[in-house]
Amino acid sequence: MRYEVAGRNLVFATDAGVFSKDRIDRGTRELLKALTVRIRPGQRVLDLGCGYGPIGIVLGALEPDAHVTMVDINQRACDLARQNLAANGIANAEVVCGDFAEAVGERTFDVIVTNPPIRAGRSVLRSMIDWAHAHLVPGGELFLVVRTRQGAASLRKYMDAVFGNTDEPEKGGGFRVIRSVRR
Asked: Which of 10, 40, 70, 128 is deepest in the core (most CB within 10 A)?
């Protein structure tokens, strides 16, 4: 699969058992639109639930002076993400495989991005939001994308309760990108 961003053609190997193996899904594309102008040199970025790596790789390609950590619990997804990093010559990113809380440890980030596993359930999504809040530096941002009909309003309400703020920097195709800033 190919994806063009900022005049650069990126290639992605995918496989059965990983999310959106045939194309970069609409939600991820909306999330990337919201992020392309926000990642700055020197920032530490976490792609939470990276799958085969489209978000982290695009962000690493767009800002080579940022450092991107990509994490997923699925070993096959991690292997594909590493393969895709190498195929695209992205040197400013790493893949860590495992449960995000254990895999990342106590590291903190300037930006955390996720196209979360909606079907994992509300408690999993809320724990991801709580964890993200605790692992963002002051002023750090959490971006997540969710289908409007699959709980965007309730997730935004929860993020607002945790962070004290939310906005929607991008929406389209039935998806909403929700952003919160750690104050």
From this structure: 70
